[in-house]
Design brief:
The protein is an alpha+beta fold. The protein is built from four helices and seven strands. The chain has a five-stranded antiparallel β-sheet. Strands 4-5 form a two-stranded antiparallel sheet. A hairpin with a 2-residue loop joins strand 4 (67-70) and strand 5 (73-76). It starts with 24 loop residues before the first strand and ends in a 6-residue tail after the last helix.
């Protein structure tokens, strides 16, 4: 039996004001920090995002897909559109997953909602590995890109 909770709206979600549209958008995977940690006790947080709106030269609204830490556990929130400083790109490792149509973004979100996880023991890299594997199965990303991400972040093996 799955212990995966139903996704809930993210804290501070701005999707009602800055919602997604029907345009094609570049999708990014971001990992905390510019380089992978040599210390395995400090796993990197990973997320997927695309830009819903540009507020100014320094602020964008990102539609974020991630497993977030809350207290002693984790939760997947959607919708989860937040104002983010554009400096985040220069402070963290960012990789393009490609240009997605609105239908492909919707498919990505459906896959994310279907990733099973345990709120206590699953951390973001394991959840993201499982999501990316589903994206490979659905041909949203290539297996080569999946392997590159697994090595660069790194993501744990299954």
């Amino acid at each position: 039996m799955s212990t995966t909770p139903i996704p809930t709206r993210g804290s501070g979600d701005l999707s009602r004001v800055y919602g997604d549209d029907w345009s094609n958008k570049e999708i990014f995977l971001q990992a905390t920090g510019l380089h992978k940690e040599s210390d395995h006790n400090k796993p990197r947080h990973v997320l997927i995002y695309w830009v819903n709106a540009v507020i100014s030269d320094s602020i964008e609204v990102w539609d974020i897909t991630q497993l977030e830490r809350h207290g002693h556990g984790h939760q997947y929130h959607y919708p989860n559109a937040l104002k983010i400083s554009t400096k985040e790109r220069s402070h963290n490792q960012t990789m393009s997953l490609g240009i997605f149509t609105s239908e492909q973004r919707e498919q990505l979100l459906e896959l994310a909602a279907d990733v099973e996880y345990d709120q206590i023991t699953t951390e973001s890299r394991i959840w993201m590995r499982d999501l990316l594997a589903k994206m490979v199965e659905e041909k949203l990303i290539s297996h080569d890109l999946f392997n590159t991400i697994r090595e660069c972040v790194p993501l744990p093996s299954a």
